[in-house]
Design goal:
Helix content: 40-55%
Bound molecules: nicotinamide-adenine-dinucleotide
Number of strands: 7
Strand content: 5-15%
CATH class of the largest domain: Alpha Beta
CATH topology of the largest domain: Rossmann fold
CATH architecture of the largest domain: 3-Layer(aba) Sandwich
Strand order of the largest sheet: 3-2-1-4-5-6-7
Distance between the termini: 25 Å
CATH superfamily of the largest domain: NAD(P)-binding Rossmann-like Domain
Structural class: alpha/beta
Shape: globular
Oligomer: single chain
């Protein structure tokens, strides 16, 4: 199988770093025209430059917009127009005991992790259906299925994404459009690496030791027994975005290193 996305225009939200950047890179390497997104001009410019450096000749541009807000999405859409591939990647996480999660936190997580994908899909799905080709992918999490007790609000948003993507897939029946979710497990993105670096410093141990301890204590069912790389997650997403994945629709696809103890 040779994935060729030449002629496809792809939007990846929250793609200046982490899993989003790796997805953008994977799509660009496969020939897609890629639009990166982040909240700050500097970050977006730096990510475009980094991608061009790693993938000479890539067709990549960037749009600065805070996609956690309706205004940010409207600004983004005014600049971008059309897309064949939409990857709803951006997401925030923050461990917090349930009793300390204020109403404002719940609403912020919902706006950022859920409504960003809702608003973007509402704009792009009708155009994809009209063209009879398109791919929408929601980057959910194994936390959608194994709700983490240390961040129930995050888990709620990731389960909501599964419901939305399955519901949207129902609208694509008989067309060339697919809507799927991808569920990464613990993955060494910049956000997660920073998180472990801070925890390691607090505990007075090295970051690799902290990561190994996290997997052993908090994700003991992991078959991978380590964090995944962002590229390992991106590979699955690039495949789902390809014409070759045309028979995969309405699915929740796990790249969780086997953390979720379920066959289906
Ligand atoms: P990250 O924090 O490393 O990167 C997130 C990116 O989104 C950054 O570029 C950030 O600037 C951007 N972003 C955040 N809020 C934004 C906003 N309002 N508007 C525009 N951009 C915004 O995160 P990551 O670890 O790469 O995670 C990416 C996705 O994968 C998230 O949805 C996350 O829930 C999911 N995920 C991550 C892991 C993991 O272990 N890393 C596991 C499962 C699922």
């Amino acid at each position: 199988m040779n994935i060729d996305l030449t002629g496809k225009r792809a939007v990846v939200t929250g793609s200046t770093s982490g899993i989003g950047f790796a997805i953008a890179q994977g799509l660009a390497v496969s020939g897609a025209r890629v639009i990166l997104n982040g909240r700050k001009d500097d970050g977006v410019r730096a990510a475009v430059a980094k991608l061009l450096q790693s993938t000479p000749g890539a067709d990549v541009s960037g749009v600065t917009a805070d996609l956690a807000t309706a205004e940010g999405v409207a600004k983004f859409l005014a600049e971008v127009g059309d897309a064949d591939i939409l990857v709803n990647n951006l997401g925030i996480f923050e461990p917090k005991p349930f009793l300390d999660i204020a109403d404002a936190d719940w609403l912020r997580f919902f706006e950022t992790n859920v409504m960003s994908g809702v608003r973007m899909s509402r704009a792009f799905l009708p155009r994809m259906l009209a063209k009879n080709w398109g791919r929408i992918v929601f980057i959910s999490s194994e936390s959608a299925l194994n709700i983490p007790p240390e961040m129930v609000h995050y888990g709620m948003t990731k389960t909501a994404q599964l419901a939305i993507s399955r519901g949207l897939a129902e609208m694509t029946a008989g067309s060339g459009v697919t809507v799927n979710s991808v569920l990464p497990g613990p993955t060494r993105s910049e956000g997660v690496a920073d998180f472990f670096a801070k925890m390691a410093a607090d505990e007075g141990i090295s970051q690799p030791e902290m990561e190994a301890r996290f997997i052993a204590e908090h994700r003991p069912s992991s078959l991978l027994r380590r964090l995944a790389s962002v590229e390992e997650v991106a590979n699955m997403v690039v495949y789902v975005c390809s014409p070759e994945a045309s028979a995969t629709n309405g699915a929740a696809l796990r790249v969780d290193g086997g953390v979720v103890k379920s066959i289906a």
